[in-house]
Design goal:
With 92 residues, the protein is α+β, with helices and mostly antiparallel strands. Helix content is 26%, strand content 20%. It is built from two helices and five strands. A three-stranded mixed beta sheet has the order 1-4-5, with no helix packed on it. A hairpin with a 5-residue loop joins β2 and β3. The longest helix is centred in the C-terminal third of the chain and has 13 residues. It starts with 11 loop residues before the first helix and ends with a helix.
């Protein structure tokens, strides 16, 4: 679970390569990097929280995107994974 901090992304190209080699899933913690761009060596870029299978953020009052009290969000482009996440969150 790489954590993007201070508006900067973790070294995601290397992290994603290691994850592929070992068949691991990656969950990005993007709460301190909302809107940050990650540039790949081939020149493409993606926003933090959208590079891996799952991106997440918390809405704690002191975070970049805060709220009154605690909260959070989970992001994914995978419809099946989103359905599974909804079931787990509802059960909790």
């Amino acid at each position: 679970m790489p954590v993007h901090l201070f508006g900067q992304c973790a070294p995601m190209e290397e992290i994603m390569e290691i994850a592929r080699e070992h068949r691991l899933h990656v969950i990005e913690d993007a709460c301190q990097s909302i809107g940050a761009d990650y540039y790949f060596s081939d020149g493409t870029h993606k926003k933090s929280g959208t590079i891996s299978e799952i991106g997440c953020t918390v809405f704690f009052p002191s975070k970049n995107l805060g709220c009154y009290g605690d909260g959070g969000a989970i992001f994914t482009n995978d419809d099946d994974l989103a359905k599974m996440i909804r079931v787990v969150v509802i059960m909790v």
